[in-house]
Amino acid sequence: MDTNIWDVNVELMIECSDHFHVVRSAREAIECLTKRAPETKGSHCAGARKACLAALEGTSTQKEARAAFETAAEEAGILRRSQIG
Asked: 5, 29, 56, 68 - which has most CB atoms within 10 Å?
């Protein structure tokens, strides 16, 4: 089993609310932060990148990386919230 895959995926709204992108790992999150993040990056973007790099290096957990990435995505206004409940 790949321990680098997150327990919970992070879904992002890209370009419009009808198109979603699923991020499953710290590696995918770094790619997304680099290539898909809005041009005006919020204060949490750098922290998310740092947390994801630390998770890839094994000095932090995947759970911490996912949480930091989710916070950055929420700040950027691209986090898709679940419609369940």
From this structure: 29
Residue 6, SS3 per DSSP = strand
Global confidence as pTM: 0.84
14 by DSSP, 3-state: which?
A: coil
What is the DSSP-derived secondary structure letter of residue 82?
A: P
The strand pairing partners of 23, in sequence order, are: 10
Query: What distances in angstroms separate CA 53 from CA 1, 4, 12, 65, one per listed residue?
Result: 20, 12, 20, 8
52 close to 69: Cβ distance less than 8 angstroms: yes
